[in-house]
Design a protein that fits this description.
The complex is a heterodimer of chains A (about 110) and B (about 120).
Chain A: E1 9-12, E2 18-23, E3 35-40, E4 47-50, E5 64-69, E6 72-77, E7 86-93, E8 99-101, E9 105-109
Parallel strand pairs in A: 1-9
Antiparallel strand pairs in A: 2-6, 3-4, 3-7, 5-6, 7-8, 7-9
Chain B: E1 3-6, E2 10-12, E3 18-25, E4 34-39, E5 45-51, E6 58-60, E7 68-73, E8 78-83, E9 92-98, E10 110-111, E11 115-119
Parallel strand pairs in B: 2-11
Antiparallel strand pairs in B: 1-3, 3-8, 4-5, 4-9, 5-6, 7-8, 9-10, 9-11
The chains are: A mainly beta (about 110), B mainly beta (about 120).
Chain lengths: ~110, ~120
Amino acid sequence: QSALTQPASVSGSPGQSITISCTGTSSDIGGYDYVSWYQQHPGKVPKLMIYEVRDRPSGISNRFSGSKSGNTAFLTISGLQAEDEADYYCSSYTRKYTVIFGGGTKLTVL
Amino acid sequence: EVQLVQSGAEVKKPGATVKISCNVSGYTFTDFYMQWVRQAPGRGLEWVGRVDPGDGEARYADEFQGRVTITADISSDTAYLEVRSLRSEDTAVYYCATDVSYGSGKEWDVWGKGTTVTVSS
């Protein structure tokens, strides 16, 4: 099964907002509200930032928000900060009872 | 404190088999699925599969079906990932991960530190 489609890179200046898209199919993103987003800094373990499309784990800043429309999910980061610079991965549950990741998006804070 | 402690780095030759472990503490092992995710150098995250420690049922990504086995030993609270017929493309960091906060098993808030597997002749 092909990975979910994410842009390879996005960038923004401190204080700005950015949105990362994650496109799948009706067999994954479009069919279930089990989309998650993970942040990974270089050499570090992935960290859960958003689960079930739009919910934030305890301790995650409300600058991070998630949404979904059809077969595409979105991660929006508002008020960009230098520490947000990282790789971001989306994931989705699928109709085959498996999980699939996106290819990852490198966020650069200018 | 919930912890997933993974076994140490492995170096294997092509065609060999590797078995890595993930020992849990701080929660009831049988309550939550254990996932395995891998990341090749400079590449993205890739879901390998998962096991339900409660009954041993495992599920795998299509690309690993038949070459990978995930098991759980409830006597030692340890999950295992075995990869057979290793090839250079299997060189990666392998993570175990679980969901102890949300219950669906589809989002993972606790991760091991990763086990590096290097496949080289």
